[in-house]
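Lecture 7 notes: from sequence to structure.

We start with a single chain of 308 residues. Read the sequence below before looking at the structure.
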Amino acid sequence: MKAIVTGGAGFIGSHIAERLVNEGYSVSVIDSLNTGDKNNLKAISNKIKFIKENASQISKLGKADIVFHEGIYSSTPMYRKDNTLVGKAVSEFIAVLNYCVKNKCKLVFASSSSIYNGYPPPHNEEMIPKVKDFYTEARYSMERLAELFNQMYGLQYCGLRYFSVYGDREESKKEFANMVSQIIWKGLLDKELIIYGDGTQKRDLTNVADVVSANLLAAKSGENGIFNVGTGISYSFNEIIEKVEKAMGKKIKRKNIANPLKNYVDIVHADTKKSMEKLGFSAKIKPEEGINAALEYYRKLKKVPDIF
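Now the structure, written as tokens:
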């Protein structure tokens, strides 16, 4: 089978592309390299087709059987800095949707747990998103468009709401990386970590390897709809920092400041029942295991990002 991965040189996309190659797929990658890096694909560079474009140019890669759409502006601060990214993300997604309809291929795309902002946990797929952020408006619009294309044209799709994805290969995202990576980088550089508030806000940490598994299960399933990809367990920032400190064998400098952000996401905690029942997905990697693996990877880098 032929698979296309948009954003395939990025953090999550490169892991998906690599797993697909290892499972025998013919893989093509399209990535603007905005937050991606071709070095993320070095292990499979001679086994894939790559073009440097944004996702709207997907048709340049020819016909595929399955599309994994990861090439989406992927962080709340990006959209707060430039709110026109909402329109760009939706416009590029429509191009991907039209491509999938024309080529009769299934679509698996990245959504976000940030959609649940303002709701008490655990968060399930039946919750109707509140108006909270530019980032979530883009992702919710994408989810609704996928459903509309299903109704109008029979598009087969799965939208995956990722919960706090962490792991290796996030260095090209710099200040837009997951907090686990940022904590590790600060520890390795012996720099001060800035914490908004008292550190009691919680995240459902999902390792990138589990996210890849969810994508492949969604691709192979006969299901359509929106699914959570998380662990069903959330940890406070303070607890996560302690886990990183234990892995590193050292204390990390911290500074707590008043939270400057409006509509900040306080807690994300996945209800995983639907994904388990419909996709057969359950996260396997414990935070301690995932943090140790990420730490080992970042220790081997010549230079980790020095952000803030």
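The longest helix spans residues 134-153. Keep this in mind for problem set 3.
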